[in-house]
Every structure is written in structure tokens, then in C-alpha cells.
Design goal:
Order of helices and strands: HEHEHEEHHHHHHHHH
Number of strands: 4
Largest sheet: 4 strands, parallel
Protein name: DUF4435 domain-containing protein
Strand content: 5-15%
Strand order of the largest sheet: 2-1-3-4
Organism: Shewanella fidelis
Shape: globular
InterPro entries: DUF4435 (IPR029492)
Helix content: 40-55%
Structural class: alpha/beta
Number of helices: 12
Radius of gyration: 20 Å
Pfam family, one: DUF4435
Length: about 290
């Protein structure tokens, strides 16, 4: 007999929410979001209260918005990524992240410092002062700016005109595959993605103008590019820092699964992320808005 938890269809989840008005629910976009938000809420709300709330996944942002429109009850909240689609809903139950996705909040001095402090046996504040996160941000700003503009222009201008299958891009690799010790971005990989999305000749004047006019830029490319593109460079960045201090240990930074686990466990230390999800935390705690 399988021990895996059952999966629910959109309709089954909606019926469950309607049948259980005393339970609080949070609807998120995808399967990867569920364990991350469950972990964060157990830390911030308290694991003892976890029986009073549940996190469900929809199938992307459109499904979340459809869910929102189909149910008016107050026992549910909804979380969607910022990504490249502006959300026009004024429903107070809906929260939109301030960065492309939850993975973009991994790029944080506090999150990384707390993740590194335990295996390094150092005070997190000591690591925080020393960790050169600005170097990572600058690398992404320099090497990723054109990619961000190309992705946005493709998503908003070109993709809507394409019939049939469209090229995938949001999880493309932009790290240096042949130099696994480097955390820097790969110029050729980035160029290949841009060429796939915007076949030459590229009118960069038009792309830049559209971006400046239409994109809600955070001021950091690393916060606005798809976070899944940056997870591997960030893991390597953290591992490089660890190796600069200790040559043994640090298994937390050797694989993507272990790295994701340690940063998610420390994600609540991110002030920007905490500020953004505080309304959801208050809702789960039963605090007045």
C-alpha cells in the first residue's frame, strides 16, 4: 500500500474548503511551493497549530485566480508569484510576491548567513558581515540584464502571437556546466536563450523601450529573473563561501535538494519575505487584520 498523500483535483479541493469552514487554507501555484510554505508557516505560525490549516496547490497562477473567483469564503488565502504577469485583482485574500517567485527570496544576506552559520559553527551576524552577497547581485545585474529584458519581451509581445507549442525558458540553465566550481553566469548559455526567444536580428531599441515602459523593475535583476534559473548559481556561491572557510563538511551545499532544504528552513529570516507574507501569517494565527 502506498504511503503517499492523495492528490486532489481543483474541484475536490474547492469542495473540501467549502465543507470545512473552520479550517484555514492557503492556495499556492505549484507542487514545489507546498513544502516551502508549509515549512515557513510551521516556523512562523507554530507547528502546534498546523492541524488548523492546510496548504493546497493549484495548477499555476491562472488556476489560483480561477479558484479565487469561484469562492467567496473567508477561510482561504491565495499566494501567487510576481513573475511577468501583472495581477489586476483587488481581492484582499490574494497576496502577490514582490519578486518573481519564492526562489528569488533565497537571494538574501540573512537567509544565506543563517544557512551557512550552523555548518561553519559561526555566529550568523559574523557570517552576514563577511558574506559578499553584493558580488552575486552585481554578477546577475551585469550578465542577466539582457536576458531579463528578452524574457519579458518574449512573454508579453512574442509568445501571445505564437500558435501551438512554445519554447520553454523559465528553468533554463544559465550557469557554467563545464566548470562546476564556478558560480558565475555563462554568457553563451544566456546568449543561446536570448536567441531562442528573440530570433535575430534583435531590435534591442524596441526591447529596451518596451521594458522601460512596461516592466515593474525591482532594481535588482536577481529579484526579477525566474528564480529557478538562479538556484544553481546561488548554491555554488554559498558552497564557494563555505569552502573559503572550511575544506570539510558542508554537505548542505553539495546538492540542490539539500541546499533548497537548508535555505527554506531559514527563509523566515528574510525581512522582505516576512513583510510580504505577514498578512497570511496573521490570517493563520487568527489575528485581526
Amino acid at each position: 500500500m502506498s504511503s503517499r498523500r492523495p492528490t486532489f483535483t481543483y474541484q475536490e479541493t474547492l469542495r473540501s474548503i467549502k465543507r470545512r469552514p473552520d479550517t484555514k487554507f492557503v492556495i499556492v501555484e505549484g507542487v514545489d511551493d507546498v513544502p516551502a510554505y508549509c515549512s515557513i508557516f510551521q516556523i512562523t505560525v507554530g507547528s502546534a497549530s498546523s492541524k488548523q490549516w492546510e496548504v493546497f496547490k493549484a495548477d499555476g497562477k491562472i488556476s489560483v485566480i480561477d479558484f479565487l473567483k469561484s469562492y467567496s469564503g473567508d477561510n482561504v488565502r491565495f499566494i501567487v508569484d510576481k513573475d511577468f504577469d501583472q495581477n489586476s485583482s483587488k481581492d484582499q485574500r490574494l497576496m502577490t510576491l514582490g519578486r518573481y517567485s519564492i526562489e528569488n527570496y533565497f537571494i538574501c544576506q540573512d537567509v544565506l548567513s543563517n544557512s551557512l552559520a550552523v555548518p561553519l559553527k559561526l555566529n550568523p551576524e559574523e557570517v552576514k558581515v563577511d558574506l559578499p552577497i553584493s558580488t552575486f547581485l552585481e554578477e546577475v545585474n551585469v550578465e542577466g540584464a539582457k536576458l531579463l529584458k528578452a524574457c519579458f519581451y518574449y512573454h508579453k509581445v512574442i509568445a501571445p502571437t505564437i500558435e501551438g507549442s512554445k519554447p520553454s525558458w523559465s528553468e533554463c540553465d544559465i550557469h557554467m556546466k563545464r566548470t562546476p566550481e564556478s558560480w558565475g553566469l555563462c554568457k553563451k548559455s544566456i546568449s543561446d536563450i536570448i536567441e531562442k526567444l528573440l530570433p535575430p536580428p534583435i531590435n534591442w531599441s524596441e526591447v529596451n523601450s518596451y521594458f522601460d515602459k512596461s516592466f515593474n523593475y525591482s532594481g535588482q535583476v536577481a529579484y526579477d529573473l525566474p528564480g529557478k534559473m538562479l538556484k544553481e548559481p546561488l548554491r555554488r556561491f554559498a558552497r564557494t563561501y563555505y569552502r573559503s572557510k572550511k575544506q570539510k563538511g558542508g554537505t548542505q551545499f553539495n546538492t540542490m535538494d539539500s541546499f533548497t532544504g537548508v535555505v527554506v528552513a531559514n527563509l523566515a529570516s528574510s525581512e522582505p519575505f516576512r513583510d510580504k507574507i505577514n498578512p497570511i501569517i496573521s490570517f493563520l494565527k487568527g489575528e485581526a487584520a
